[in-house]
Amino acid sequence: MRTRQPAYRWNVPSSVGLQYLNETYIAPETELVGAGGVHRWQYVAAEPGSAEFIAIYWRPWEEVTGNETTFSMDFIIR
Question: pTM score > 0.85 for this model?
């Protein structure tokens, strides 16, 4: 089975306070164009304090305008 790369991609420009471990993309089990897969990032806390994860869903060849879909999560690490 051929893995398609979507035009839109999640970009992680910020992971302050977190240490990157790996990322995995699980493609959908369908050949339908535009079908969503699952993207999983794995991080661990770098140190106690606060941490922030931000991801932007965009096409890498376009400039970021501020109207993109985003996901963010704040953490308090003890």
Answer: no
Q: Are 8 and 58 in contact (CB under 8 A)?
A: yes
Positions of E strands within 16-77: 18-26, 38-45, 49-58, 69-77
Per-residue pLDDT of the chain (78 residues; tens, 9 = 90+): 445 555 788 888 878 899 999 999 888 888 887 778 888 999 999 889 999 999 999 888 888 898 999 999 999 998
Distances (CA, A) of 74 to 14, 44, 48, 62, 63: 11, 13, 13, 27, 25
Tokens 């999640």 belong to residue: 10
Across-strand partners of 40?
24
